[in-house]
Amino acid sequence: MKAIQMSSFGEPEVLKLVEVKEPVPAENEVRVRLYYAGVNPAEAYIRAGGYAFFNPDMPFTPGFDGAGVVDEVGPGVTRLKTGDRVFVASTMAKRKTGTYAEKVVCDVEAVHKLPETVSFEQGAALGIPVTAAYRALFHRAHLKPGETVLVHGASGGVGTLAVQLAKYAGAQVIGTASTEEGIDVVRKSGADAVLNHNQTGYLEALPSITNGAGVDVVIEMLANVNLEEDLKLVNKFGRVVIVGNRGSLDFNPRLTMAKEADVLGMAVWNAPLDEFNESLIAVEAALNNGGLQPFVGTILPLEEAAKAHIQILSSNAKGKMVLEIEKD
């Protein structure tokens, strides 16, 4: 079968399209014939080498997320059967052969049913982004129905899903984006209000949007730029969850004191396995009940994985980038 493989760490050019042997599922494992694979910044960091959370042996096929049809089940698998439409979220799986490939094998717990109302490219947009959004909202911020959430940088793969999950849980949701196209994506994701974070004074609109009630939770995609303002705007006992950061900053920690505000880090790789599996069960339910419709941005063919790695780190994301492996 065809797969993207790297034999060393380095620039995107180390990603090569090669022929490899089909992986075979063992006990409690599933093989999925993939139509699309998700592309995440984490995979670019892993490819470059020195990523704190994951350092694979070589040769290595990247990719943790994907969607397709169950091709074969190993002994002991009863929840899934051959032919089931599924999405793959293999970040925490004990075995994961990589989704930048025509087929992937991983633990059955990492494979969940995909309803007919959700396309395969949308299914590939789940995985890391949706488990990050779920963990940030519910395991870290402990979001409650009726609270107000600001998703700071809401047009990307994590942001659009965070908007939808928060709305599905009964929160008021405000999103920010930097372009008219991004604003439209956030609005279509269900946000109650959308702000352009490239406009001076854009946060001044928050009191009128919330009728003076303020913001309880901030999901932050660029903490080095926004954290200080986040701490100024959150309510008493507010929570800021840092999902993304690209630098350092100098701010006064006293901002956390008067409100007893919490600044919380978040990394999917740190999730206890029971919490990770819980998030996937919740996501499957939300998909079945119409609470999630992933937004797909750029679609590239599998052989352009190197180009995808360049774009995922350099462009303003609009939804989730995916690789097309086979047309369904």
Automatic annotation (TrEMBL):
InterPro entries: ADH-like_C, ADH-like_N, ER, GroES-like_sf, NAD(P)-bd_dom_sf, Quin_OxRdtase/zeta-crystal_CS, Zinc-ADH_QOR/CCCR. SUPFAM superfamilies: GroES-like, NAD(P)-binding Rossmann-fold domains. GO terms for molecular function: mRNA 3'-UTR binding; NADPH binding; quinone reductase (NADPH) activity; zinc ion binding. It comes from the Bacteria. Signal peptide: none annotated. It is found in: Cytoplasm. PANTHER family: QUINONE OXIDOREDUCTASE. This is NADPH:quinone reductase. It comes from Neobacillus novalis.
